[in-house]
Amino acid sequence: MMYMVMRRGFTSIADQTLLTVKAMVARGAYDQTLVFYKQRLHPSTPSAFHGVIPILPSVIKAASLAPSLHFGLQHHCLVLKMGFHSHLFISNSLISMYAKLSQVEAAVAVFDTMTHRDTITWSSLVNCYAQNEYGKQASEMVKEMYTAGFLPKPQLIASIISICGRSGNLRLGRQIHALVIADQRIKEKLESELEEGSVFLSTALLDMYLKCGDCLMAFRVFNRIKLKNHVSWTAMVSGCCGNGNYDVALHCFRAMLVEGVRPNRVTLLALIPACANLGGVEHAKELHGYAFRHGFESDFHFSAALVRFYGEFHEAVSSAKLIFERMTQKDVVTWSTIIGIYSASGNCSEAIRIFREMQLEGVAPNSVTLLPIISACTNLSLPDQGRGVHGYALKSGLSLQVVIGNSLINMYSKCGCLMDSHQIFKEMPRRDFVSWSTLISAHGLHGQGEKSLQLFGQMQERGIDIDAITFLAVLSACNHSGLVKEGQELFNDAVKDNKISLTMEHYACYIDLLGRSGKLQDACEIINTMPMKPSTRIWSSFVSACKVHGRLQLAEMLAHQLFKLEPGNAANYTLLSMVYAESSNWMGVEEVRAVMRERGLRKNYGFSQIEVENKS
User: Fold this and answer.
1) CA–CA separation, 453 and 489 (whole Å)
2) Closest C-alpha to 217, from 226, 206, 227, 225
3) Distance of alpha carbon 103 from alpha carbon 126, whole angstroms
4) Do 288 and 272 contact (CB within 8 A), yes or no?
5) How many whole angstroms from its chain centre is CA 507?
6) What is the chain's Cα-based Rg?
């Protein structure tokens, strides 16, 4: 009698300990669980090891979530030493642990040594492969599992279908879909899990078909879902956007509202690309209004997405700024976005101001932040500001990045500091073809065409690939420096080699080079034989060349042709006016000016800006 009472007492203590450990794991106290086990539960004698068998799965789970591979390995050794690996639930726990710790080979080793396996065993290894991006192995393991007579749960099938969607394996996805329809046991399993399992699996199928581009099948799956929740609708909206069916995505969103299903943040984020492609700002404002009414505007991710979206439209930059200023949480990505928006829209002074504000807020800029700031300093010709940014890049180590070095080369050259551009190029630990192209352009811009040709030759000697951008840079350098013979040789070689795809810009640059040097006949021959229709820029350049070299009648005739091509371009009228003035046809000048006044055309004037003693 006494023995029975004592046994019952020990059993209740063990149960209470197990409940305590499970409760600690459930509330996320993984480190405390491991400490509690070490101090209170770890057996001191071999006979006491059997008392911790029920607790081991919870402790192993805590080790996987802590995460502590060292502790997990210790317990695996303990399991092997005491022969506990024969307990199915312990081996299953070890597979799950190694899966979470990304130790795929260890999980496979545990699986291979198991003499008995159940559905959980197979599912654990499949999940291990899936979680660690071994999609092919996960798919093969499901096949083996099914062949061995074990039925995958709907959640596991959905996981494999998701892998098919990510990898674009439509064939396997269809096979699994067919299995779900054909196997009565899976149907019964879905029915036993009520609607939740069915919706989960159907949504995975829907997502897979959309990612694989089979929209028709996706719609069929979607229409057969009896209980459509916000996940199903969001998958449909997102998938339609991904396939470019933006009007359908917007229609699905409206149907979702009619059905009484409330969208979440993910749904609204998925719709923003649709707004961008369906009329821009107006659709986005409707979406923004809905988000504001339903409390989504305070969501950081949604606000950041709206800032990016509005920033793409010049007329909506003020909206982007307003949302940015109202955001309570701003990370480096958000700051970089708004700086990039102002820099791209031409408001470079505001971009620099926000950059300073960002630093005062204690947010460290990254390379994405620096690129638009360097561009702003370039556009405003502010070398001193640029040197400040350069100094920050040096201190932070960002100057080692090739893209930053390339931007600095470009900035210094356009601010008149060619020696600084060359110095940065020399100090760069790594250079790409853009680095060479930028420096070639820099020397060309400063009239040092011979140096540009020298750098171009060095590129060829080092075996660096010459692309269309590099070739345009060296051709432009020849144009700026009046190196007609060298430019002709380069262009003729490019045409013969056929390695570089010559574009309209290459032809425009070459024709301008010939025109400036007075080789009007050669320029005309190139225009007539070029493989694409000449652009208005080419004709305008040729008219200017004719004017400069006294071919005024030809210039007048071509200028009239320009009117037909671009009737709303004031520069064409100004060019004809200058041709008339060159030939002293003052009546013609007045007629052109009268036409411009009648049509409301005005030539856009350029402006220059310099910085003196930190003042521009």
Assistant:
1) 12
2) 206
3) 13
4) no
5) 33
6) 35
Place of tokens 């879902």: 225
Residues 6 or more apart whose Cβ sits within 8 Å of residue 416: 381, 383
Both tokens of 390, joined, read 């350069």
210-246 residue pLDDT tens: 999 898 999 898 888 888 888 889 899 988 888 888 8
Q: pLDDT of 390-419, one tens digit each?
A: 999 999 988 889 999 999 999 999 998 999
Please check whether residue 269 is in contact with residue 301, taking contact to mean a CB–CB distance below 8 angstroms.
yes
Backbone angles phi, psi at 566, to 5 degrees: -135, 80
CB atoms within 10 A of CB 351: 24
468 and 503 in contact (C-beta within 8 Å)?
A: yes
SS3 of 235, please? Answer: helix
- In whole angstroms, give the CA distance from residue 35 to residue 436: 59
Tokens of 166: 């990510």
SS3 133: coil
What residue type is assigned to position 257 of the chain?
Answer: L
For residue 615, the SS3 value is: strand
Q: Contact, 265 vs 299, CB < 8 A?
A: yes
pTM: 0.70
pLDDT computed for residue 40 by the predictor: 60
Residue in 322, 385, 319 with CA at minimum distance from that of residue 352: 385
